[in-house]
Design goal:
heterodimer; A: 495 residues; alpha/beta; Amidase signature (AS) enzymes; 2 domains; 39% helix; B: 484 residues; alpha+beta; three-stranded antiparallel sheet; elongated
Chain lengths: 495, 484
């Protein structure tokens, strides 16, 4: 088994035992990248030298027995909307094609202080707007399970890299499902934490009240370890919250008497039968292990999608106004005047989907329309939160599909934004309510494509969600048949 | 014009922007200081770098709430920041973080002395918190405009009045009252030449007796009180002329050019921007507890209006003098210290401060705190004069010496030999000489012209080089003259 195939937890054991070095792990990843990247396009930029430098430093420290942080030496990859000091951070946009942040995001300070070699920056939908990584200004990332299909999005680069062994784990971001949906499409684990538990300082804003950084990995434990590293209050983010999260499982957790709610609204029209069936089999597995299944209802879920696109676009229209060609980023050549500088810089610098959302959001906030759109969307958001609260009176967590479908063919929805948006129907409710939610693989379609199961819990229930997912991962038997490295350009055989 | 304008009433509302003198900026740790080298007092937050987030400086909340308390506003236990969206190169985020429908303070008032001499309440609609924008520099480069972001994120409060002002003079007094209140609270340095106090002026006119408001025009970014006065007068006249010519007033924003004394259209109502305000999602609701509020209330200093009343009613100072003293923070502090040291000499201290000391400060362009004079030495000087040791005239000499050297009055009197002559015999002989030398004046006195006595005293003072005790001399002279 190659080093890149191992989980972070396994690699940590090996590092401790001295059976491998951080440099060897890092080199193994870069070899894998040079092999697969031509067909996968998961990364926008790579930082091999500095990653190896960090790895060697960790190895030197280990040799002289300097105390290290728990994840020291395990290479990580970063979605390209998280600011990395001195390393290009593009948001997969022409607008920021050459933007080198002068500062680290708070999560990057944590990563740097903990001495994790940073492999590179991952592809994504432009400014995280999209569900297929097709809106990236750069190359098209492909799904390692089927190169003709999308990896999901917007953290599609992260999901593809992790699933294929181009990364052990990664930091993604999730606004309406951007961690969970690609995790589901690529058959990995992704956690969107409670809003506020991970600092957004240095995460290039899409929709401030929804954006959240979170971990993506091949195993639940790896997700948990990474979350433990990045969570916690940050004085530079006024919306951040302290969270008391520790991942130290003495033994396999039990699901006995765990009350799992099954909200009917997530299993209705628009959700593929195969997906429903696989997810319900997951629920039944929990039941067979002693959990109680309860039907619950969240009526406002039906309107959540519309409300989400109003709120997220409204915030985006404001957040993205700063890209005006004046200070940094793309600037149109030879502007005739200030107005021309603004118009052309933004028209030429932003892709079509980003422009669509800016226009939508600007409209929703306009005088005369604000009450009808933005305010009503906020009211719906509050109502949805209430319904979740009520549901959590009756159960400990909800179990739903992560996405209504499996990875779709490249280009299928590129010209059908509404169909693309509809794919977010299962992930958006937790985002709107600020709740933690994770996706784990729970089966495969007849075509062999991964299906994701979503667990949604009350605020700060990350530990319960991760334990429950861990139980499934360890005991359901699905783990063995996970075809993580299948069909990558035909060169790789199934492991 | 004047006959015409007397049939009209001007209605004015003001929006005053004051930069707060907090140590750091409103949303980051950058220094809040004027005059630093360009683009050196800024960071990813105040220059709107991708991914940077604002964190509200709590001192800004405290300062704004104190201004609210000082102007009788209700201070909200929960208020909210909002984004005001517009594009301009001095605004790096392309939105200003401000407040919209949930400002920190509402419904207050400021008292001014109306033109009829009666106190008048000018209502405040609200006070809200916001950030300042940067500055564009147009003359530093031959072809390009450059941006200096040092001022980005400097905390501001905007104080919005109701349209309660009726003349440019009332507007000036209102602005002065706001300036003094800010200064007394110590929350703004109010340096207009540095732009730390600016205002927008809303003006409309209507026929006297009408209770309907006319169409208003706004003039933005006026940065001196005199410019505000000129802008209001110009605008009121312009509107009256239009109405008299049978034309309509259009609601518009105008730019007032104080150099040329005219205003021109900046944008019409149709061109007005839609700021697309919405709650700032990066910041939490601003919560102010009852404890915070009580603490801030308790820490408020005595405010200009309160001082004014105390000076008049407790110290017996004239309202003109009280107004003059309260107008300057350094003066008021100096005077209050004098009163503390010696309440019975308050009026004397006021006379000195507004007389010789003010004259000296004017001539030397100084603040009282920049001189060597202390309240202690002024009171000492007043006491010495009162005791009769030196005359008031000599007192002036002593004062000017204290102002520059800082020596004690006693020492100056000694060094200059200024002690007053109170030797009755000596003064009698001098008085006798003076009377004999001026027979025609003696004749006048006999004819009942009492004012001649003053002339004789003056002559005696001249003889004694100002050291004669004038009260004693007056007594002696009366005796001599009435005996003649």
């Amino acid at each position: 088994m190659e080093l890149f195939e191992h989980s972070a937890s396994e690699l940590l054991e090996m590092l401790r035992a001295g059976t491998c070095s951080s440099e060897e792990i890092t080199r193994s990843i870069f070899r894998r990248i040079s092999e697969l990247e031509p067909s996968l396009n998961a990364y926008i930029s790579l930082s091999e030298e500095s990653a190896l430098e960090t790895a060697r430093q960790v190895d030197r420290n280990r040799a002289i027995q300097i105390d290290e942080s728990p994840l020291a030496g395990i290479p990580i990859a970063i979605k390209d909307n998280i600011c990395t000091k001195g390393i290009k951070t593009t948001c997969a946009s022409r607008m920021l094609q050459n933007f080198i942040p002068p500062y680290h995001a708070t999560v990057m300070e944590r990563i740097t202080n903990a001495e994790l070699p940073v492999i590179g920056k991952l592809n994504m939908d432009e400014f995280a707007m999209g569900s297929s990584t097709e809106t990236s200004f750069f190359a098209q990332t492909r799904n390692p399970h089927d190169l003709n299909r999308v990896p999901g999005g917007s953290s599609g680069g992260a999901a593809a890299a992790i699933a294929s062994g181009e990364a052990i784990f990664a930091l993604g971001s999730d606004t309406g499902g951007s961690i969970r949906q690609p995790a589901a499409y690529c058959g990995i684990v992704g956690l969107k934490p409670t809003y506020g538990t991970v600092s957004r300082y240095g995460l290039i804003a899409f929709a401030s009240s929804l954006d959240q950084i979170g971990p993506m990995a091949r195993t639940v434990s790896d997700c948990a370890l990474l979350y433990q590293l990045i969570c916690g209050k940050d004085p530079r983010d006024a919306t951040s919250l302290s969270s008391n999260f520790h991942w130290n499982l003495p033994s396999l957790p039990s699901v006995k008497n765990l009350r799992i709610g099954i909200p009917s609204q997530f299993f209705g029209d628009g959700v593929e039968k195969e997906v429903c069936a696989a997810v319900l089999r997951g629920a039944e597995y929990y039941q067979s292990q002693g959990a109680e299944l309860t039907e619950v209802s969240l009526p406002s879920v039906h309107h959540a999608l519309s409300a989400y696109y109003i709120i997220s676009s409204a915030e985006a229209s404001s957040n993205l106004s700063r890209y005006d060609g004046v200070k940094y980023g793309y600037r149109a050549d030879n502007p005739a005047d200030l107005q021309d500088l603004y118009c052309r810089s933004r028209s030429e610098g932003f892709g079509q989907e980003v422009q669509r959302r800016i226009i939508l959001g600007t409209f929703a906030l306009s005088s005369g329309y604000y009450e009808a759109y933005y305010r009503r969307a906020q009211a719906l958001r509050r109502k949805l939160r209430q319904e979740f609260d009520e549901a959590f009176q009756r159960c400990d967590m909800l179990l739903t599909p992560t996405a209504p479908d499996v990875a779709f063919p490249l280009g299928e929805r590129r010209n059908d934004p509404l169909k693309m948006y509809a794919g977010d129907i299962c992930t958006i409710p937790a985002s709107m309510a600020g709740l933690p939610a994770l996706s784990i693989p729970c089966g495969y379609s007849t075509e062999g494509l991964p299906i994701g199961m979503q667990l949604i819990g009350p605020t700060f229930s990350e530990r319960l969600l991760l334990e429950t997912a861990y139980f499934y991962e360890q005991t359901s038997g699905l783990k063995e048949i996970r075809p993580v490295f299948r069909s990558c350009g035909g060169k790789e055989g199934t492991k | 014009m004047s006959i015409l304008s007397s049939q009209y009433e001007t209605v004015i509302g003001l929006e005053v922007h004051a930069e707060l003198s907090t140590k750091t900026k409103i949303f980051c740790g950058c220094k809040n200081e004027f005059g630093l080298p360009q683009n050196t007092a800024c960071c990813p937050v105040c220059t709107g770098m991708p991914g940077a987030l604002p964190v509200l400086n709590r001192s800004v909340v405290e300062y704004a709430a104190k201004m609210g308390l000082a102007t009788h506003c209700s201070v909200a236990s929960a208020s909210q920041m909002a984004r005001k969206n517009y594009f301009y190169p001095d605004l790096p985020k392309a939105y200003q973080i401000s407040q919209f429908d949930h400002p920190i303070c509402r419904d207050g008032y400021v008292e001014i002395l109306g033109e009829d001499g009666e106190k008048k309440k000018i209502r405040l609609r609200q006070i809200h918190i916001e950030e300042d924008a940067g500055k564009l520099v147009h003359d530093a480069h031959p072809t390009d405009t450059l941006a200096d972001y040092n001022r980005c994120g400097v905390p501001l409060i905007e104080i919005v009045s109701q349209p309660d002002l009726r003349s440019s003079e009332e507007a000036r007094r209102f602005l002065e009252q706001i300036r003094l209140t800010l200064l007394y609270l110590g929350i703004s340095d109010c340096k207009m030449q540095e732009g730390s106090l600016r205002c927008d002026v809303n003006v409309s006119v209507r026929k006297k007796g009408s209770d309907r408001l006319g169409t208003r025009c706004e003039m933005k970014n006026i940065n001196s009180f005199s410019a505000a006065v000129h802008a209001i007068d110009y605008e009121a006249n312009r509107q009256i002329e239009l109405i008299e010519a049978g034309e309509e007033i259009h609601q518009e924003t105008r730019r007032f050019d104080d150099q040329k004394g005219i205003s021109t259209v900046l944008r019409t109502k149709e061109e007005a921007e839609d700021y697309r305000y919405f709650p700032e999602p990066d910041l939490l609701t601003i919560a102010i507890s009852a404890d915070d509020l009580a603490q801030w209330q308790a820490s408020l200093p005595e405010l200009p209006g309160e001082k004014f009343d105390r000076y008049i009613h407790q110290l017996g100072i004239s309202s003109a003098d009280a107004r003059q003293i309260t107008e300057s923070l350094s003066r008021v502090e100096f005077f209050d210290r004098c009163v503390m040291l010696s309440p019975e000499n308050a009026k004397q201290a006021a006379n000195w401060i507004l007389g010789d000391i003010a004259k000296y400060l004017n001539e030397t362009h100084q603040e009282i705190t920049q001189t060597k004079l202390t309240p202690e030495s002024l009171i000492e000087l007043i006491e010495i004069i009162r005791s009769g040791k030196i005359s008031g005239t000599s007192g002036k000499t002593v004062l000017s010496e204290i102002l520059t050297s800082g020596k004690s009055p006693e020492r100056i009197i000694q060094e200059k030999g200024l002690s007053q002559i109170s030797d009755t015999a000596l003064l009698q002989s001098i008085a006798q000489k003076v009377v004999e030398a001026n027979p025609s004046s003696v004749e006048d006195y006999r004819k009942g012209k009492g004012s001649v006595l003053g002339f004789f005293v003056g002559q005696c003072m001249k003889e004694t080089k100002g050291q004669g005790n004038p009260a004693l001399l007056k007594e002696i002279l009366s005796e001599i003259l009435s005996g003649m």
